[in-house]
Amino acid sequence: GQNIDQPTEMTATEGAIVQINCTYQTSGFNGLFWYQQHAGEAPTFLSYNVLDGLEEKGRFSSFLSRSKGYSYLLLKELQMKDSASYLCAVRDRKDDKIIFGKGTRLHILP
Amino acid sequence: ETGVTQSPTHLIKTRGQQVTLRCSSQSGHNTVSWYQQALGQGPQFIFQYYREEENGRGNFPPRFSGLQFPNYSSELNVNALELDDSALYLCASSSTLSSADTQYFGPGTRLTVL
User: Fold this and answer.
1) Number of neighbours of residue A30 by Cβ within 10 angstroms
2) C-beta of residue B106 within 8 angstroms of C-beta of residue B23
3) pLDDT interval class at B102 (50, 70, 90)
4) What's the alpha-carbon Rg for chain A, to the nearest Å?
5) Which residues in chain A touch residue B100, judged by CB atoms under 8 angstroms apart?
6) Cα A44 from Cα A64, distance rounded (Å)
7) Would you list which residues of chain B are within 8 Å, Cβ to Cβ, of chain A?
8) Which residues of A touch B106 (CB under 8 A)?
């Protein structure tokens, strides 16, 4: 089966750094996605990892360890607009479906 | 904006009714996936269409059905609506069936069942 775990909520301060963790179990791994979703809006793509290591894109970085079934999203220089839910999603190799976690609601304090 | 559009944006129905939601995929994308997102939850995969054929289905009953048209736009139909069907329905399009290409989401249709 498939299972994705991420913290329900996190709080951080404007200008700081926050790391959102995601662990997953899947019968056949074929890539991990991070999406950002503001309240009432559709998810927007942030990053994609299929090989181990760190992918950096501006203030956002995503890390993957396939052997540990683990990923994190690192957000630097936090801004108030980063207050949103962050969704971890895994593509299953067997049927190519993308399975989402429940999301982590990130609150940014001034 | 992703280029994926959905209609309508909001919809209110009563239990037992039927509903059709529509999605136009981004130009050049031939794969459309539909998701149901309840409040406070992540999107749940309903099914995926590739070149007008259903290609994969999540744990949803047969009263959830779909279509994809030659221009790759898609419909989601839900029969015999239940209260628990109230959710945000998202469609996402991508350019190839089995690749690293990511999905881009439309703005969603918020369905309320009374």
Assistant:
1) 18
2) yes
3) confident
4) 13
5) 31, 48, 50
6) 20
7) 2, 33, 35, 40-45, 48, 55-56, 58, 90, 97-98, 100, 102-108
8) 42
Reading the block at residue B82, the tokens are 């239940």
Distance from CA of B107 to the nearest CA of A (A): 5
* DSSP secondary structure, B26-93, as one string: PTT--EEEEEEE-TTS--EEEEEEETTEEEEE-S--TTEEEEE-TTS-EEEEE-S--GGG-EEEEEEE
pLDDT at B101: 62
Contact A56, A49 (CB under 8 A): no
Contact flag A103-B41 (C-beta cutoff 8 Å): yes
What's the pLDDT score for residue A110? 93
Q: Within 10 Å of residue A87's Cβ, how many Cβ atoms?
A: 26
pLDDT in tens, A58-99: 999 999 999 999 999 999 999 999 999 999 999 887 777 888
- A41 contacts B56? CB cut-off 8 A: no
pLDDT digit string, tens, across residues A59-70: 999 999 999 999
Give me the total of CB pairs closer than 8 Å, taking one residue from chain A and one from chain B. 51
- As a whole number, the mean pLDDT across chain B is 91
Length of chain A in residues, anyone? 110
